[in-house]
Design a protein that fits this description.
This protein is 47% helix and 13% strand. By secondary structure, the chain is of the alpha+beta class. Helix 8 (260-297) runs antiparallel to helix 9 (313-340), helix 8 (260-297) runs antiparallel to helix 12 (382-389) and helix 10 (346-371) packs antiparallel against helix 12. It is globular. Bound molecules: flavin-adenine dinucleotide (FAD).
Length: 419
């Protein structure tokens, strides 16, 4: 099997459609929601839910194939590749508003990676129903972010009621508010809470639990004020004696030495890290295109094809940024191609995330630098994109942590051998 460099037709069609969404629905509201942190972009949410339902998608979770044919050679699976392209196109519109896209999100990704077929049926079908619906994933705790195996949230099986009882504190939960708070305009969402069922078992004791919105004992204690992606809610959540049905545990309740619970968390990241990378590429592309537009308005055209020594310094900068952006995108395509073809992609997923984290930060900063006062002014979105972009290098494993994952994969070390 080889990587197909020609973009598949369903992807081109979706990119075309989402360009209109980016230009017409997202960009005109970018500044407003940046300045009105924690206001919910209801028009966008409702429009996107309606549009996704109309196209039969309902949410951004991978369908087996963008093509219907059973012939995988002629029509290779492109589920993740399609999602990556959709995310890139939406992040090009606005990275924060992309995070307000209704549908599965990280919570559904965890159910997809660690749940049984019955659980997928039970928890994931809600995203195509009448109202827009959200889900979120809560792993991070104070002192347990990069090393998420250090989580202290505890789940204990109460044999009398046959329910899990969860206690703990989670922080930095993307979409936590929209997934848990019962808003009139939203369907019933859920949060996926990672907890330990056996603190003596380390990573082997980690499990994820689906906690439905409105469950007693769960409280949103804070919404984070942030540098960028300010329209996306980032919640701190406390869980006090939270009872969830016994079947809401994702994966087996038996503690084994195999670290299967932790592997569930990692499998989620293998799926989502290239998608985070794709979102970074989208915002970097927005910044780079804006720079080219402004340069063209001022009579500066980039003379592609000339020898490097004949180019101006700005032309060299722009071409270098083009190269960075393309290489980051190709790494995304490789990682999602592997996911679509059911190949183990932990290495490529982390590589794409490292690359996009770097490239996105560098490009958006360089664009502000070249634009000078126009870049620094709030009249344009370049300064906002620079603030938004930085998150690509922080969540879903920081740049440093993903570099560690890459090194472990290449050198064959375990997490405890190389930390
Ligand atoms: C906007 C936003 C949204 C988020 N969304 C979610 C979410 O939906 N769900 C969720 O569970 N979490 C979420 N997070 C949490 C995010 O994944 C963590 O913040 C991130 O993994 C870093 O963990 P930490 O905050 O504990 O930082 P720390 O682990 O304390 O890291 C601090 C610094 O130390 C470095 N560092 C740590 N360990 C090492 C090491 N071994 N080697 C070299 N350097 C190291 C890090 O790279 C970083 O630079 C979100 C965070 C933000 C900011």
């Amino acid at each position: 099997m080889s990587i197909e460099f020609e973009t598949p037709k369903p992807i081109i069609q979706t990119q075309f459609m989402l360009k209109t969404v980016a230009d017409e629905m997202m960009r005109p509201k970018s500044r407003y929601f940046d300045e009105h942190e924690h206001e919910i972009p209801w028009d966008y949410i409702e429009f996107m839910h309606m549009a996704m339902k109309a196209t039969g998608a309902g949410n951004l979770s991978p369908r087996d194939n963008g093509n219907k044919s059973e012939d995988k050679e002629k029509h290779p699976p492109i589920g993740y590749q399609l999602i990556a392209a959709q995310i890139e196109a939406l992040a090009y519109g606005d990275l924060g508003m992309y995070h307000c896209l209704p549908g599965g999100g990280l919570g559904a990704a965890a159910v997809n990676s660690a749940g049984t077929p019955e659980q997928k049926e039970k928890f994931l079908t809600r995203f195509v129903e009448e109202k827009p619906t959200f889900s979120a994933m809560c792993i991070t705790e104070s002192g347990a972010g990069s090393d998420n195996s250090a989580i202290r949230t505890r789940a204990v099986l109460d044999e009398k009621t046959n329910q899990w009882v969860i206690n703990g504190e989670k922080i930095f939960v993307t979409g936590g508010d929209k997934s848990f708070t019962e808003y009139e305009k939203l369907g019933k969402g859920f949060i996926v809470v990672w907890a330990t069922i056996d603190p003596t078992a380390g990573r082997g004791g980690m499990r994820a639990f689906v906690v439905e919105s409105g469950t007693p004992g769960v409280k949103i204690t804070k919404l984070e004020h942030k540098l960028g992606i300010r329209v996306s809610d980032t919640a701190a959540i406390s869980l006090v004696d939270v009872h969830v049905p016994v079947d809401n545990i994702l994966g087996s309740a038996t503690v084994e030495k195999s670290n299967s619970g932790f592997k569930g968390a990692m499998a989620t990241f293998d799926a989502t890290r290239p998608l985070v990378a794709a979102s970074g590429v989208g915002v970097a592309r927005a910044a780079l295109e804006f720079l080219k537009e402004k340069l063209a308005e001022n009579g500066v055209q980039i003379r592609y094809g000339l020898p490097r020594q004949k180019l101006t310094s700005i032309e060299r900068d722009v071409i270098d940024m083009d190269i960075m952006l393309k290489s980051a995108w190709l790494m995304v395509v490789k990682a999602v191609w592997m996911a679509d073809n059911k190949k183990h992609n932990a290495l490529e997923a982390s590589m794409s995330k490292v690359k996009a984290g770097d490239v996105t930060t560098k490009i958006t900063q360089k664009v502000v630098e070249i634009l000078g006062p126009l870049g620094y002014s709030r009249e344009f979105l370049a300064e906002k994109w620079m603030r938004d972009a930085k998150i690509t290098d922080i969540y879903e494993g920081t740049g440093q942590i993903n570099r560690l994952v890459v090194a472990r994969q290449i050198l064959g070390y375990s997490g405890s051998e190389l930390r």
